[in-house]
UniProtKB/TrEMBL annotation:
GO terms for biological process: glutamine biosynthetic process. Keywords: Ligase. It comes from the Bacteria. The lineage of its organism: Bacteria, Bacillati, Actinomycetota, Actinomycetes, Mycobacteriales. It comes from Mycolicibacterium parafortuitum (Mycobacterium parafortuitum). This is Glutamine synthetase. GO terms for molecular function: glutamine synthetase activity. Belongs to the glutamine synthetase family. It holds the Pfam family Gln-synt_C. The keyword Ligase applies. InterPro entries: Gln_synt_N_sf, Gln_synth/guanido_kin_cat_dom, Gln_synth_cat_dom. Residues 124-458 form the GS catalytic domain.
Amino acid sequence: MTDESTLLDLDQFEKLAATGEINTVVCATPDPYGRLVGKRLTIPAFRSLGLSGAGINASSFIFAVDLEMNPLDLPVSNADNGWADIRLVPDLTTLRRVPWEPHAALVICDAYEADSDTMLAVAPRTILRQQIERAREQGLAFKFASELEFFLAATPPRQAWELGYQNLKMLSDYRSDYQMVQAGRDDWFIERIRNQMPGFGVSIESSKPEWGLGQQEVTLDYCDTLEMADRHVLFKYGVKQLAHAADLTVTFMAKPKIDDVGSSCHLHVSMWSSDGSPLSWSADTAGMSAKFGSFVAGQLTHAADMTLLLAPTVNSYKRFQPDQFAGTAIALGADNRSCAFRLVGKGPSFRVENRIPGGDVNPYYAYSATIAAGLDGIARELAAPDIFDGNAWTGTGVPIVPTSLHQALRLFEECKMARAALGDDVFDHLLSSSRSELVAFDSHTVTDWEMRRYYERV
C-alpha cells in the first residue's frame, strides 16, 4: 500500500532544483524520542555531502540527550569521546517535498559511524532495521499501521508555553467522540492534515474527534515496517508544523491531564512472507494461523517485559487506568477493547492490534519490541493464546502491564530475550537512557501535586 507518487527520484529533484522550486533540503534522522533532528542544507551542499560525499556530519550527542537537550553520559557519546561526530547518510527512497514548505524537500537519513560504513547501532532506525533483518532471515516480513491520538488547544504555542501549559482553551468545549458536528467545526484545521499529509508521502485513512476535550484521532494507512515507522514520525512532525502555523498548540503526551482521557497509539501488525503472501489468517480455522498464533503469543508473553519500549516516559504510565480504554489487561480479545491485544479483520487484512502504547511512543522502538517478542514466540512454537471473552479489566488472573517507569525498567532489565534480540550495546543504551529520565523526575522535580499537598500542611 506504499504510495510512491509523492516521493522524488533524483531526476525529479534535479529538475525542481534547477528551476528554483526547491532551494532547501531537510536532512533529518529520528532521535530516541521519535523527533526529527538534523540540518537544513542548500542545494549545492546536499549534492556535495548527501549525494556525492560521505554524508552530513553531526554530533553523536543527538542520540545521548534528554528532552531538555542535556547530555547524558552514554557509551555512544560522552565527554571522554568528545561527543564524537557521526555521519547522516540520506536514504534516497525517502526523498519528498514538504507541502507546507513549497521550496523545501525532506529526506530521512540513516546514522553511520564516522570512520566506517557501519550503521550506528543505537540509532532508532538501525535498531528497527536489525529486527526487520532477523525476520527476513526467517522468510518473514510485517506490515504495521499506527493509529495516533493527540490533543489540540486553541491557544498559540508561545502563549501556551508562557502559561506553563495550564488552563489552555481546548479546541472543543464538551465530549464529542465520533460526533460529526464537532468534526465539522474542527475541519478548518483537520482537513489540512488529511489533505496535505498524502502530499508528504503519509497516506491517511480517516479522522474523527476523540473522547477528550480537543482530542483527535487520525488513522494512517498500513505499509511495510520501516516505511510505517518513518511515516509515523513524519506525521507527528507535520502535525506540529501545521498546528504552529495555525496558532494551535498540539500535544502527543500520553496523559496531559489526570482528569481527562489519555492519547493512545494503537499499533496494528500483520505477518507476511518475504515474497508478499499474507500469513496471519488461516482459512481452515477462520482465525489465526499457527505461526501467527505463536507470534501473537510471544507479544503477550513479553508485554510486561517490553513495556519500556512501548511506554517510554514517566507520563506514559499515568494513562494506564483500566476504565479509560488503555491496554492495561494483558489478554487477547476478538474485537474486545478491554484487552491489551485485539484481533481485527479477516483474510489478508487480519491483524493484531496492540493497545498498550500512547501517543508519546517512539515507533522504531515499539515496532522492534513487537517483532522481537513475536519472533521469540515463533522460535519457541508457543501455542496461540486463548481468546478472552468479557471484561478483561476485571478478569480473574489477567496480568496487567507495569504501572510505573520504575517497574517497567526492572522488568526490561531482567528480560534475557530483549538483551539477546537487541544486542548488549543497544540493550544497555536503552536501559541507561530510561534510567536517566527516571532520575530526572525522581530527584530533580517538585510537582504541583507536592506543592498543593505539602506546602502548608506539613
